[in-house]
UniProtKB/TrEMBL annotation, chains A, B:
<keyword id="KW-0805">Transcription regulation</keyword>
<dbReference type="Pfam" id="PF13377">
    <property type="entry name" value="Peripla_BP_3"/>
</dbReference>
<keyword id="KW-0238">DNA-binding</keyword>
<dbReference type="InterPro" id="IPR046335">
    <property type="entry name" value="LacI/GalR-like_sensor"/>
</dbReference>
<dbReference type="InterPro" id="IPR028082">
    <property type="entry name" value="Peripla_BP_I"/>
</dbReference>
<dbReference type="InterPro" id="IPR000843">
    <property type="entry name" value="HTH_LacI"/>
</dbReference>
<dbReference type="Pfam" id="PF00356">
    <property type="entry name" value="LacI"/>
</dbReference>
<dbReference type="InterPro" id="IPR010982">
    <property type="entry name" value="Lambda_DNA-bd_dom_sf"/>
</dbReference>
<keyword id="KW-0804">Transcription</keyword>
<dbReference type="GO" id="GO:0003700">
    <property type="term" value="F:DNA-binding transcription factor activity"/>
</dbReference>
<dbReference type="GO" id="GO:0000976">
    <property type="term" value="F:transcription cis-regulatory region binding"/>
</dbReference>
<protein>
    <submittedName>
        <fullName>LacI family transcriptional regulator</fullName>
    </submittedName>
</protein>
<feature type="domain" description="HTH lacI-type">
    <location>
        <begin position="4"/>
        <end position="58"/>
    </location>
</feature>
Length: 345, 345
DNA sequence: AGTTCAACTGTAATCGATTGCGTAAAGGTG
DNA sequence: CACCTTTACGCAATCGATTACAGTTGAACT
């Protein structure tokens, strides 16, 4: 397997390995006659470069590592897809790692990627605090950009969305729909995303005079189950507010389900919003109003930053970029469009 | 980056690089004193092996490539997750590639993985026919196992489920629920999975005397949109049968949606079944009756086969294994449990 | 004709870890 | 004490491609 080497091609073509390398990589100069012989020999033998050997020599692997908290979360899945496509255009390959939302596993993955000499790493950190040592240390070794989430106290590039701006849109929309009280169903505050979103939620709620119903924040994880549980808890503890603002679509889907299971109509009695615009938010009953993240843009920016960082090398690691793209609100059926509470099918 | 080499450790410890290698890999023999010095030096310097260099020498990369038709299909996503976990236990890493359901892209990906000297490849082929040359050729170079789908005329290991047995369960269940006619909504027959499922569907339908409604098979792709379109077409062409048997959950979700949009009640008027048991099949309205694939088992078997194949080397590439696991039917609300058509909420 | 220079091509070092072979010292045996 | 094993470790080759450097050739120029 992987048997034919450059030396064999060289022998068959009657030239040196250096020449073969030059012809095949197009660097340096060579006569047309030699080029023909070499290409002929390479084709005959079915030569393919040994990427490993080349990497060792060039200390470049044309490989990027990506670490996400969970591959099964559709949001990350589509982010992975976008990154994969963006990398494809650059002729790079993707090493995918699932950290299973565990900073320790994440740390191992990061170390392992670094040991594999990837050209760069894209990571969506599992934890806003505990992920820090590994992320920071890895970032000191090679180009690293954080995606979506950000670890406090790290100095790396970051690409994500402006959560505060997004929440402003969400709250304005809910307010238009008549909401005068709202609850935020988030995940643990240890994710920068939920924290930012909550901050945006709270600020705009205050400005719009929307009552934040349970004062204590609801903390769980990014899952359907947690959405269901949170709603059950709210109902048990005194009823639902006019609106449920969820930190992501999975939670929102669970929340919607629980509302209906408990006999509350969505959006007539309770409005529900999600975040991410995963594919299934469109298919839910009712279709979910949510915040659409420009995933392709995010991925493209991340790849671009990595490429830039690779060029700059350790030379002048300039100031790090924090790119916040503005997401768009996607209004569907889980919220009320008009101020007058009107039911729509 | 990746600066400290084995030579530096050797110098600091006052030994040769050979000794450092032996100590760190635990192969060969060495005195306790030397071991201490070497470990000390390695720790002080923060030494990490250069996996690339090691791979070149060992011609092993501890890396497995996986190619799937689409990362965004939740079924493949969870398959990827399972494989990732199974590999983690073996200390191997996963190279993930998305073929975007295009055999040409798939071929490029396979070639690229082979060039990267992965230890093995797990592929779920995009096309039952067009994927053949690339799959076959790659399989001749290195261990390869096909997952879920199978390319006709290739000789490689395969792990998947017994589609025919699964369809038998589905049809029996639908028959119990009173279905006397049914349509199969599949994807293009160029996927072995849809073909097998259709075969199972047709055979059991015949045995149970269930009328196969439109004689021509409905062909599209594995997507929600296609499910919606197929139902629209059925309605336009003369109405719906008692049951819609879909080749996967995405199609089933789309079909269910379309049924309801056109005013047909599921499962009262039309029963719908899916295949794969993706997470959202549980969340749909009504929750989808579907076939659960034992993903972890599938992944584990695939990884096991690869490991075995790596050991065997080209030596005696014995007969190839075809492992068909038996999936289980998951009955939910999109079908009728009892013969008497009874509505349930 | 003698130089000069550009165009080609080959030699060999290099990337970093691994490992077969060789050897010196330590330990064992009769 | 001579001789044979082990044990412990270093030397140097090796994996395959790339590339700095040097050498060769022939054309162009003075």
């Amino acid at each position: 397997m992987q048997r034919v080497t450059i030396a064999q091609v060289a022998e068959r073509a009657g030239v040196s390995t250096a020449t073969v390398s030059r012809v095949l990589s197009g660097r340096g100069q060579f006569s047309a006659a030699v080029e023909r012989k070499v290409r002929r020999a390479a084709d005959d033998l079915g030569y393919q470069v040994n990427v490993i050997a080349r990497s060792l020599r060039n200390s470049r692997t044309d490989t990027v590592g990506m670490v996400v908290p969970s591959i099964t979360n559709p949001f990350f899945t589509s982010l992975v897809e976008s990154v994969e496509h963006a990398l494809g255009k650059e002729g790079k390959e993707l090493f995918l790692c699932d950290a299973r939302s565990d900073p320790r596993i994440e740390a191992r993955r990061l170390a392992s990627l670094a040991a594999r000499n990837v050209d760069g790493i894209i990571v969506s950190p599992s934890h806003g605090v505990d992920s820090r040592p590994a992320v920071q240390q890895t970032a000191e070794q090679l180009p690293l950009v954080q995606l979506d989430r950000f670890v406090d106290g790290t100095t790396t590039d970051w690409v994500g969305v402006d959560d505060v701006a997004a929440m402003r849109q969400v709250m304005d929309h809910l307010h238009d729909g008549g909401a005068r009280s709202a609850a935020y169903i988030g995940s643990l505050m240890t994710h920068s995303s939920t924290e930012q979103r909550f901050a945006g939620f709270r600020r705009r709620a205050e400005e719009l005079n929307i009552e934040v119903k349970p004062h204590e924040v609801l903390l769980g994880d990014y899952s359907v189950e947690w959405g269901e549980e949170a709603v059950a808890r709210l109902i048990a503890e005194g009823g639902l507010p006019d609106a449920l603002v969820c930190a992501d679509d999975l939670i929102a889907l669970g929340a919607t389900r629980a509302c209906r299971a408990h006999g509350f109509s969505v959006p007539r009695q309770v409005q529900v919003t999600g975040y991410d615009d995963i594919e299934f938010s469109r298919l839910a009953e009712p279709a979910l109003t949510t915040v659409h993240q420009p995933r392709d843009r995010i991925a493209a920016e991340a790849v671009r930053l990595l490429a830039a960082a690779s060029l700059a090398k350790d030379a002048e690691r300039g100031p790090h970029a924090h790119i916040a793209l503005v997401p768009t609100l996607v209004v569907r059926d889980s919220t009320r469009a008009a101020p007058a509470p009107q039911h729509r099918i």
